[in-house]
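Hi all, posting the design record for the shared folder.

TITLE: backbone redesign
STEP: 1 of 1
STRUCTURE INPUT:
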């Protein structure tokens, strides 16, 4: 039987999500990779336990996480049932719809038909009555935004989600989504964009928009899928995401130019007394608009590495300039 650590709330930071009442842990765990039907269930279960033991109260899913699609929700539902039945009210579960999930015209993008059916399916797989956050996973250029946002708002009114969010939306559409949701009396809680040292598109406008509108921000792939660790410095290890046929990190993305930067960043992190993963997470969290960094993991030890980033989160201006110089020049 699993008894969570009694010290689990001691060291984690909890940040207010935009102008809402919801606090999220500075580090959240995503179940995109390593929690599917092809993965080891015991390791997945141990990762969820480790996360919770260290104060990670937020777990992020989507309808299509696996493989096969849907299996991460099934596995997480099993883990919740086995280990966390007494702790549902200590946990924030999110799921999403927006990418391909089933065949035919109603299993993809942003229609009301797709979103509401998908949420019902997710709840069945998760064995939950409601999720805490329901997201639209990506903008749909062909469906009126009003329809997609009405579906999100209705998921809240039906009691199937407590809050709603959007992911991968550009700034202008984010503002419109926020206005439309407001007109339905449902605030836009959170935006989930990709943000890491190698991908900084959010810095030009999105973060300012989120701050202005009181929307929280949870940054996904803060380690660039594992690139911002020392893992790939000496080749592609077996069992790494880049080595797996179903992994979304492609070998072609691990270029010599990136590896040179990673080596320098790794040395710089060591001079700060932390691992590169810890520095990369602290660097994303330096932006006050960021509520939480959404990490992935394949082993419990990676979660332990991540939570230690909170021990050294400060950067001097000189350090930030040094990191910028490495990222721009190599
Ligand atoms: N909204 C969206 O469109 C979207 C898209 C992508 C992701 N997400 C969300 O964001 C979450 C995180 O994404 P991500 O998995 O790409 O995040 P990430 O934190 O950038 O990468 C996680 C991977 O990095 C490696 N890693 C982590 N800690 C490590 C350490 N200490 N040392 C060495 N390697 C380490 C592991 O890879 P190995 O498996 O190689 O060990 C791990 O699976 C997802 O689970 C999902 O919830 C959302």
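Okay, here is what came back for every position:
SEQUENCE:
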């Amino acid at each position: 039987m699993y008894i969570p650590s009694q010290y689990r709330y001691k060291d984690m930071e909890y940040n207010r999500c935009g102008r809402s009442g919801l606090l999220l842990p500075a580090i959240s765990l995503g179940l995109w990779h390593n929690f599917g039907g092809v993965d080891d269930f015991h390791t997945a279960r141990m990762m969820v336990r480790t996360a919770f033991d260290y104060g990670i109260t937020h777990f992020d899913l989507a309808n299509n996480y696996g493989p096969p699609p849907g299996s991460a929700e099934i596995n997480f539902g099993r883990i919740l049932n086995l280990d966390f039945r007494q702790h549902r009210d200590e946990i924030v579960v999110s799921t999403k719809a927006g990418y391909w999930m089933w065949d035919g015209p109603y299993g993809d993008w942003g229609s009301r038909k797709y979103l509401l059916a998908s949420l019902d399916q997710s709840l069945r797989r998760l064995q939950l009555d409601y999720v805490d956050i329901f997201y639209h996973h990506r903008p749909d250029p062909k469906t009126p935004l009003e329809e997609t946002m009405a579906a999100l708002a209705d998921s809240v009114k039906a009691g199937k989600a407590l809050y709603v969010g959007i992911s991968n939306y550009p700034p202008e559409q984010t503002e419109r989504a926020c206005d439309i949701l407001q007109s339905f009396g449902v605030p836009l809680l959170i935006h989930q964009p990709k943000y890491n040292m190698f991908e900084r598109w959010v810095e030009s406008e999105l973060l300012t928009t989120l701050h202005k509108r009181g929307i929280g921000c949870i940054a996904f792939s803060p380690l660039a899928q594992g690139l911002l660790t020392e893992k790939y410095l000496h080749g592609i290890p077996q069992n790494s995401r880049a080595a797996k046929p179903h992994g979304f990190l492609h070998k072609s993305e691990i270029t010599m130019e990136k590896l040179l930067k990673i080596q320098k960043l790794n040395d710089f992190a060591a001079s700060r007394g932390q691992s590169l993963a810890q520095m990369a997470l602290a660097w994303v969290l330096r932006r006050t608009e960021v509520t939480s960094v959404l990490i992935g993991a394949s082993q419990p030890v990676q979660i332990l590495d991540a939570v230690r980033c909170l021990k050294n989160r400060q950067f001097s201006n000189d350090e930030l300039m040094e990191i910028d110089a490495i990222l721009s020049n190599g």
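COMMENT: The longest strand covers residues 161-167.
Let me know if anyone wants the other runs.
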